[in-house]
């Protein structure tokens, strides 16, 4: 039984995209927690040792190898910072955050070039603007998302990623151009709709539609370099984010589980790039949000 479970675990790791999504969203649900199949391997290893089963130990080589191939590179040391690198911070600050000033100071303390925020609501928005103004004189805000920058911003405009099924006012995307010392970069900031897990499975239709719209916008972007910062309410392994993950590079190093802040188990706060490399991503200390901030170092190509 342990050997059979090991083979099944390996199959789920390697062929996760074969798990259907039509019923209950099981495919996306599996892919959201795919790295945690490594914990299953550890449990099976303990059982195999207790049972003293050579067959089970040999079978465990399959999921162990699959997990190492898929996720092992994320655990390698971060590359050395380069002269052309940009440091960016992405954070869903939460519309219930009772310390926006402290949150802003904590994010600025990492000394990033760009800070992307979601769930900006009045009067907290004014607090973020005042607190960040000295070190980040350039900003663009559309609806409940915003970008603060050390470098000039131009051509800021709203990004229409609203699913057709949402009828109320909803503005959670922006596109602007950061004029860095290394050239112009199209910067996208987005907050995709939330997903829910219940008796009916994974409810993610609006998130999936919004990801498709965002992917179309990125594909149509004329500037060569693109950086996407956002709470995408999905992991990079989730097939629902394929419209983005197939067009943009994701972090090569770092795990950076960002949600929930009290006990992070997934990274749904993402940094992606085109014609640039997201060399490393990490979490920053908790703020007053239910998300952890993530910081990523981007090497411009």
Provide a descriptive summary of the structure in words.
With 301 residues, the protein is of the alpha+beta class. It has helices at residues 2-14, 26-32, 37-51, 54-59, 61-71, 100-108, 124-132, 205-220, 242-245; strands at residues 85-92, 114-118, 138-142, 145-149, 153-158, 173-180, 183-191, 196-198, 201-203, 226-231, 269-274, 276-283, 294-300. Helix 1 packs antiparallel against helix 3, helix 1 runs parallel beside helix 5 and helix 6 (100-108) runs parallel beside helix 7 (124-132). It starts with a helix and ends with a strand.
Radius of gyration: 20 Å
Number of strands: 13
Helix percent reads 25-40%
Low-confidence stretches: none
In short:
The chain is an alpha+beta fold.
Could you list some keywords that capture this structure?
five-stranded mixed beta sheet; six-stranded mixed beta sheet; 9 helices; alpha+beta
Q: What's the helix and strand layout?
A:
Elements (H helix, E strand, L loop, with lengths): L1 H13 L11 H7 L4 H15 L2 H6 L1 H11 L13 E8 L7 H9 L5 E5 L5 H9 L5 E5 L2 E5 L3 E6 L14 E8 L2 E9 L4 E3 L2 E3 L1 H16 L5 E6 L10 H4 L23 E6 L1 E8 L10 E7 L1
Parallel strand pairs: 1-2, 7-10
Antiparallel strand pairs: 1-13, 2-4, 3-4, 5-6, 6-7, 8-9, 10-11, 12-13
Helix pairs in contact: 1-3, 1-5, 6-7
């Amino acid at each position: 039984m342990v050997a059979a479970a090991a083979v099944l675990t390996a199959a789920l790791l390697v062929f996760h995209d074969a798990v259907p999504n039509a019923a209950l969203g099981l495919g996306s649900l599996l892919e959201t927690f795919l790295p945690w199949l490594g914990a299953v391997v550890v449990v099976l290893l303990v059982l195999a040792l207790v049972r003293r089963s050579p067959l089970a130990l040999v079978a465990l080589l399959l999921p162990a190898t699959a997990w190492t191939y898929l996720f092992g590179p994320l655990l390698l040391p971060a590359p050395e910072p380069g002269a052309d690198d940009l440091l960016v911070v992405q954070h869903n600050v939460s519309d219930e955050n009772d310390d926006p000033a402290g949150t802003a100071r904590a994010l600025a303390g990492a000394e990033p070039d760009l800070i992307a925020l979601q769930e900006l609501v009045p009067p907290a928005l004014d607090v973020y603007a005042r607190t960040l103004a000295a070190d980040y004189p350039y900003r663009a805000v559309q609806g409940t998302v915003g970008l603060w920058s050390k470098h000039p911003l131009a051509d800021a405009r709203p990004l229409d990623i609203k699913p057709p099924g949402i009828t109320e006012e909803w503005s959670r995307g922006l596109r602007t151009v950061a004029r860095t010392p290394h050239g112009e970069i199209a910067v996208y900031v987005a907050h995709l709709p939330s997903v829910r897990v219940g008796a009916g499975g994974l409810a993610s239709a609006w998130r999936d539609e919004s990801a498709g719209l965002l992917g179309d916008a990125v594909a149509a972007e004329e500037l060569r370099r693109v950086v996407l910062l956002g709470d995408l309410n999905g992991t990079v392994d989730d097939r629902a984010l394929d419209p983005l993950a197939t067009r943009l590079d994701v972090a090569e190093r770092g795990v950076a589980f960002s949600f929930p802040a009290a006990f992070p188990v997934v990274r749904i706060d993402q940094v992606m790039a085109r014609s640039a490399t997201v060399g490393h991503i990490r979490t920053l200390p908790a703020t007053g949000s239910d998300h952890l901030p993530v910081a990523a170092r981007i090497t411009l190509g």
